[in-house]
Specification:
mainly alpha; Growth Hormone, Chain: A
Length: 422
C-alpha cells in the first residue's frame, strides 16, 4: 500500500471513529443535565447512580454489537461492517436530538434513553473492528503499535470534541442550555455522521483481508471457531484490556463529575472543564508516542510498566483531585495521564495480534467490548458507589488498582507463540 492511501485510511478512521466516541461520551459529559431531566430525584447520589446505570447499559450492549458486526467483518469484509456501524450510530444521534424528557412523558423518557443507549452500545461494539482494519494495512506488522494508537487517538479526539462542543453550546445558549441547548451537540454529531458515512463508502477493503479471501474461504461462524480454538488468547485479550477500559472511563467521564458535582471540592466548574479538556488533549498526543515506542521496545513491556504506574499513582491521584487547589488537580491529571497513555498506546495492537486474520474482527471486537462491560462501563457507577458507602474520597483508587493487577498478570503470561502477524 502506498503512502497516500495509508494517509487516506488513517484520516478516514480517525474522523469516523471520532464520531462514534463523540456521541457516546456526550451522554457521559451531560450527566448532570440528563440526571435532572430524566431522573429528577431529590437525593443527588441516587440520581447519579441511576444516570451512571444508563451509561453502563450501553456497555452491556457492546458485546452483542461486537458479535454481530464481528461476524459480518470476518465473513463479508471489514468495510461493510464499519459502514453499518457508523450508520447505526448516526441513527442513535438522531434519536437523542428529539427524545422527550421526564416532565413531558414521565417514565417513558428514561426508557427511551435506555433504548438510545443500547443502540449506541451496539454501534460502538461494531466499531471496534477499526483496529483490525487499521493494522491490516501495516507491512509485516512493523507499525502495528503506531497504527493501533490512531484508533485510540480518534476516541480521545471524539471525547474532547464532545466536551468542547458542550462548552461552546453552553456559552451561547446560556440558561437555555439545560432546557433545549443540550440537544445541539447531538445535531453537530449527526452532521459529522453524514460525512463519516461518505468516507467509509470511499474506503477500499484492507489488503491483508483481500489476500486472505483470495486464498481461503472465510469461516461460516467465526464466533464458534473463536470459542472452540482460541479460548486462551481471547481470555488474555479481555484481561489485558481491563485496566485501559477502567482508566479510560474514569478519565473521560468520572473525574469531572467527581470534582464538579459530588461536592468534593469548591473550585470553579469552568476551570475544571478546561483542565480536563487540556488533559485529554495531552493524553491523545502521548498515546501516539507510546504506540510508536511500543513498536521498538515491545508492546508487552510498555504496558506492564504502565500498569505498575497506574497502580502506584491511583491513591495519590484521587487524593489531590479532592483538594481545593487548581495546582494539585493539574498534578493529579498529569500523574494519571502519563501511565494511562502508556497503556492506551499499544493496547489495540497487543490485543489484535493475539488473533489470526480469519477471526480477528470477531475476537478483538468481543474482547474489547466484554472488557468494557466488565471494567469500563460500570467504572463511574462503581466509583460513585464506593464513595457513597465508605464516605472516603480516595475509595475509587481501589478499583483502578484491582484492574491494574489483573492486566499485569495477563500481560506477564503472553508469549511469542501467541502473536499473529500478517
Amino acid at each position: 500500500m502506498n503512502y497516500t492511501n495509508m494517509i487516506k485510511v488513517v484520516v478516514s478512521t480517525i474522523i469516523c471513529n471520532s464520531l462514534v466516541w463523540y456521541d457516546y461520551v456526550l451522554v457521559g459529559s451531560l450527566t448532570n443535565i440528563i440526571r435532572n431531566l430524566f431522573f429528577p430525584l431529590e437525593d443527588k447520589y441516587s440520581s447519579f447512580i441511576l444516570t451512571f446505570s444508563v451509561f453502563a447499559v450501553g456497555f452491556l450492549a457492546r458485546p452483542f454489537g461486537a458479535a454481530v458486526f464481528g461476524h459480518i467483518g470476518d465473513k463479508y469484509g471489514r468495510k461493510i461492517a464499519l459502514i453499518f456501524s457508523i450508520v447505526l450510530m448516526s441513527i442513535s444521534i438522531t434519536f437523542m436530538m428529539i427524545i422527550p424528557v421526564y416532565n413531558n412523558i414521565g417514565i417513558y423518557a428514561p426508557i427511551l434513553l435506555v433504548i438510545c443507549r443500547v443502540i449506541q452500545g451496539i454501534a460502538l461494539g461494531g466499531e471496534a473492528g477499526n483496529v483490525a482494519f487499521l493494522i491490516e494495512h501495516s507491512k509485516n506488522g512493523k507499525n502495528n503499535g503506531l497504527l493501533g494508537s490512531y484508533e485510540v487517538l480518534s476516541a480521545v479526539i471524539g471525547s474532547l470534541m464532545a466536551m468542547l462542543v458542550i462548552m461552546i453550546t453552553h456559552h451561547f445558549t446560556g440558561n437555555s442550555f439545560v432546557i433545549w441547548g443540550w440537544r445541539i451537540p447531538f445535531f453537530v454529531g449527526l452532521f459529522i455522521g453524514v460525512i463519516s458515512v461518505c468516507l467509509r463508502l470511499r474506503n477500499a477493503e484492507s489488503p491483508a483481508y483481500c489476500m486472505y479471501k483470495e486464498q481461503k474461504i472465510p469461516l461460516k461462524l467465526p464466533f464458534a471457531v473463536l470459542l472452540k480454538n482460541y479460548k486462551r488468547p481471547f481470555l488474555l485479550a479481555i484481561l489485558i484490556d481491563c485496566i485501559e477500559n477502567c482508566s479510560f472511563h474514569i478519565l473521560m467521564v468520572f473525574f469531572v463529575n467527581f470534582i464538579n458535582e459530588l461536592s468534593l471540592t469548591r473550585v470553579d466548574h469552568h476551570c475544571i472543564n478546561i483542565i480536563a479538556s487540556t488533559g485529554i488533549f495531552v493524553c491523545g498526543i502521548l498515546t501516539v508516542y507510546f504506540g510508536a515506542l511500543s513498536d521498538f521496545v515491545g508492546k508487552k513491556k510498555v504496558m506492564m510498566i504502565a500498569s505498575i504506574g497506574l497502580f502506584c499513582v491511583s491513591i495519590p491521584v484521587f487524593w489531590v483531585l479532592s483538594q481545593d487547589s487548581y495546582i494539585l488537580i493539574i498534578i493529579g491529571y498529569i500523574l494519571f495521564i502519563i501511565p494511562f497513555s502508556a497503556v492506551l498506546g499499544p493496547v489495540n495492537a497487543a490485543m489484535a495480534e493475539l488473533f489470526p486474520i480469519n477471526i480477528r474482527y470477531t475476537g478483538f471486537g468481543l474482547a474489547r467490548n466484554i472488557s468494557s462491560a466488565i471494567a469500563g462501563g460500570g467504572a463511574p457507577l462503581i466509583c460513585t458507589w464506593l464513595i457513597y458507602i465508605t464516605d472516603i474520597k480516595i475509595a475509587p483508587a481501589m478499583y483502578v488498582m484491582f484492574w491494574a493487577i489483573i492486566s499485569y498478570i495477563a500481560l506477564s503470561v503472553i508469549q511469542k507463540k501467541d502473536i499473529y502477524v500478517d
